[in-house]
Amino acid sequence: MKIIIAIVIFSAVILIHELGHFLLAKKNKIEVIEFSLGMGPRLLSTVRNGTRYSLKLFPIGGSCAMAGEDMDDDRPGTFNSASVWSRIAVVAAGPVFNFLLAFVIAVIIVGVAGYDPPKVMQIQDGSNAEAAGLKEGDLITKFQGYHVDLGKDIYVYSYLNELKEEPVSLTVKRDGKEQDISFMPEVEVRYLLGLNRKDTTSMEVESLIPGMPLEDAGVEPGDVITSINGKNIKDGEDYEAYIKKHPLTDQPVMLTYMRDGLEYEAEITPKEYRTPKLGFVYNIWSEKASGFDVLKYGFLEVKYMVRTTILSLKELISGSLGVKDLSGPVGVVDAIGDTYEASKSEGTLMIWMNLLNMAVLLSANLGVMNLLPLPALDGGRLVFLIIEAVRKKPVNRKVEGAIHFAGLMLLMVLMVIVMYNDILKIF
Fold this sequence. Notes:
Blueprint: H1 2-27, E1 32-48, E2 51-66, H2 84-113, E3 120-123, H3 128-131, E4 139-143, E5 146-147, H4 151-160, E6 168-174, E7 177-183, E8 186-192, E9 195-197, E10 205-208, H5 213-216, E11 224-228, E12 231-232, H6 236-245, E13 253-259, E14 262-268, E15 271-277, E16 280-282, H7 292-318, H8 329-343, H9 348-370, H10 378-391, H11 397-426
Antiparallel strand pairs: 1-2, 3-16, 4-5, 4-6, 6-7, 8-15, 9-10, 11-12, 11-13, 13-14
Helix pairs in contact: 1-2, 1-8, 1-9, 2-7, 2-9, 2-10, 4-7, 7-9, 8-9, 8-11
């Protein structure tokens, strides 16, 4: 069931994108040869008014094939016979329809479930935030210079920008007036070995934190810790109890672990790990919206999704994220399915809200990605059309076609790599 729901949502978002191209092409009297949902062999197909409408086997894409789109052909009714501004409208319509779809769904979500104002909910007693004058109920409008509309704006910024031991700057709105607040974060000091366990009940090392003691000592993923300082550790409960009774310090500990049936010992000196803390809790829960606020916060939800996508792209370009962090159609369908499964225990309304939220994210994401100025994408085509509008004459069609073809081949290679990674993540 979850796979069917995921495919329906994914296909609907693609269908709306292609529908944008289709409607603007028809409006500008450009012949549409085929309008299809999916890729691969046709399952169903019919021809009406000169256009073939097809449903294809693999629901991972779609197309709106227009006459003469990738050829040097300017006969009446072809793509290139239309004015440059008509062609710009046709190409841009796909992403624009995705943003419109995201907005409509976001308005529904806000109307039913509300929005999350960036409100200060609780302040730690005696914290630097309290001393600086921050108060419960303050609305945060800027966090570290980053404009904030919703509580989750702060969450995303914090996720992508690790909090450091340096001043935190806020702009808050209180009683209709804005004021700036700055303070040093609290710092939690812990001593760590540097492991991530397979789960909370297990002592199997799933991964090691780079630069931490266990990695330096030669411990590897898959090893199982069996004792600390001579104290047998049978499971995660034993480990938690030991750490609570004997907190790690900068003093060495003797660790015993098993690998391939053999027992090893290593003397480990825990490493100091300093974690800056804000000293206050901000809102990430929804409040009801009414009247025009529903439209306002529906727009802000889409803005949040678009900005999050752009920030993620920046992280990808900078190297903070890699190809392994990307998800293609398989990963998206799996994520939607997981969202459905996780929401079932919360009731039908939450299932719908969470699935619609995934649709907003997916639609906004597809709109942004298609506007990237890369060959074969809508953004790449728009670059050539804008050049044509400025020069008053088109770029050599054969050159443009070759560039888009090369871009398509590279895109297909990337899709294969991403799909392979998606499958590895699932299995």
